[in-house]
UniProtKB/TrEMBL annotation:
Top-level class of the enzyme under EC nomenclature: ligase
Protein name: UDP-N-acetylmuramoylalanine--D-glutamate ligase
Gene name of the record: murD
One Gene Ontology CC term in the entry: cytoplasm
Record organism: Halomarinibacterium sedimenti
GO molecular function, one term: ATP binding
Domain Mur ligase central: 108-286
Length: 444
């Protein structure tokens, strides 16, 4: 008799898992507490997969042999607690899909930089390898595994996806950095969040590689207390390393047991130290996978960055408008403000995930001339920066925020959308927020 696979959540990862489950002979049922988008409903109907939305039928769910829950559902959700009490296996889509592929997996996680690093790694590999990009970005891993046979996967992985793994083992794992984020999901305990990120290496062996930021004290401290099995390849912009990647005379030097490369950094399209680190991480992966030095160099020099991450939108009356909607935590916004070189009108706010704004104070003091709050509840932002910035305006729509920014900015200024918060109070997601910003700017 076919095993029963129940999928909670009918979004990208849920539908991908459903397609793969059906292909592998499972009896599949998808259940979503909210509304499943039309685009996903069509896919489920096309594959003749049973589904329900706007509520869960418990009897149908508790009859599962295995349950895949979407990363957005917290472990503490009453239904998940019930499933665990019934001793039912609850896994993530990444775990489910990994059982059906023998490919080399490059897993990339971190509080910030993982989308850029994953996209850049894919760009460095795609000319010479059969490779797909997915996970928390683009198509779900499960759908990629169902639709094609790739020899390599570059996967962007969130801590929520890693929380649901048991045997998942990337051959190369990358940890870009760790700063407080999503603490609302980890009992406001930073150590639980750190442990979650390090799950990326929990099944690795000494045949595998772990690439990480050696300048990140949170990572190095954790590694010293909880050693991992894989071969360590650090990267650093401050120190010279025996193995890994570092900077010398405006070059990135990469040294592995297999080979070493030297890359000039003068022609990189991406700016800022954080992007230099993303480039080092991606180049280390490419070096391990024996990509030619020229290919790495050309791809690094032509890579433009990802949408909604310090994306230049337009210049109007000599004011530059920048979309950094993907900055959903304080640390990401720190990078954005740090890279500003002119007086800045800063649009900030949204759903706070336990943010502490203190680390931004020196940057705000130095660079920000006005703050435009864009959220349902802006009290914390007003409290944090009220004494630092002369002008603070509250708005409740992107159109208003951009029009206020237009009025407050002068020649030579920058208008920066870098919210430091999640977007779910006023927008569907950070992409929707970024697109509305770009539209409002174009309509000025």
């Amino acid at each position: 008799m076919a095993k029963r696979l129940v999928i909670l959540g009918g979004g990208e990862s849920g539908v991908g898992t459903a397609i793969l489950g059906k292909k592998k002979g499972f009896e599949v049922f998808v259940s979503d507490f909210g509304k499943i988008k039309e685009i996903y409903k069509k896919v489920l109907l096309h594959h003749e997969i049973e589904w329900e939305d706007e509520g869960h039928t418990e009897a149908k769910i508790l009859s599962a042999d295995v349950v895949m829950k979407s990363p957005g559902i917290p472990e503490k959700a009453p239904l998940i607690v019930k499933l665990k009490e019934a001793n039912l296996k609850v896994i993530s889509e990444i775990e489910f899909a990994s059982e059906y592929t023998e490919a080399t997996i490059i897993g990339i996680t971190g509080s910030n930089g993982k989308t850029t690093t994953a996209s850049l790694t894919y760009a460095l590999l795609k000319d010479e390898l059969n490779v797909a990009l997915g996970g928390n970005i683009g198509k779900s891993f499960a759908q990629l595994v169902a639709e094609d046979t790739y020899e390599n996967y570059v996967l962007e992985l969130s801590s929520f996806q890693l929380d649901g793994i048991e045997t998942f083992r990337p051959h190369i794992s990358v940890l870009t950095n760790i700063t407080p984020d999503h603490l609302d999901r980890y009992d406001y305990d930073f150590n639980k969040y750190i442990a979650s990120k390090f799950r990326i290496a929990m099944n690795q062996t000494k045949e595998d590689y772990f690439i990480y930021d050696a300048d990140d004290e949170v990572i190095t401290k954790w590694l010293s207390e909880y050693p991992i099995q894989s071969q360590l390849l650090p990267f650093s912009i401050d120190k010279k390393l025996e193995e890994g990647a570092y900077i010398e005379n405006k070059n990135i030097i990469i040294k592995t047991k297999i080979n070493s490369h030297t890359m000039p950094i003068t022609n990189l399209q991406l700016t800022g130290n954080h992007n230099l680190k993303n480039a080092m991480a991606a180049s280390t992966v490419a070096t391990l996978l024996r990509i030619r030095k020229d290919t790495i160099r050309q791809s690094l020099e032509s890579f433009q960055g990802v949408e909604h991450r310090l994306e230049k939108v337009l210049k109007i009356n000599n004011v530059v408008y920048i979309n950094d909607s993907k900055a959903t935590n304080v640390n990401a916004t720190f990078y954005a403000l740090d890279s500003m070189e002119s007086p800045t009108v800063w649009i900030v706010g949204g759903v706070d995930k336990g943010n502490e704004y203190e680390e931004l104070l020196p940057l705000v003091n130095e660079k920000v001339k006005a703050i435009i709050c864009l959220g349902v509840d802006n009290d914390k932002i007003i409290k944090a920066f009220g004494n630092v910035v002369d002008i603070m305006v509250e708005t409740e729509s992107m159109r208003d925020a951009v029009q206020v920014a237009y009025r407050l900015s002068e020649k030579g200024d920058t208008v920066l959308l870098s919210p430091a918060c999640a977007s779910f109070d006023l927008f569907e997601n950070y992409e929707d927020r970024g697109r509305q910003f770009k539209e409002a700017v174009r309509n000025l």
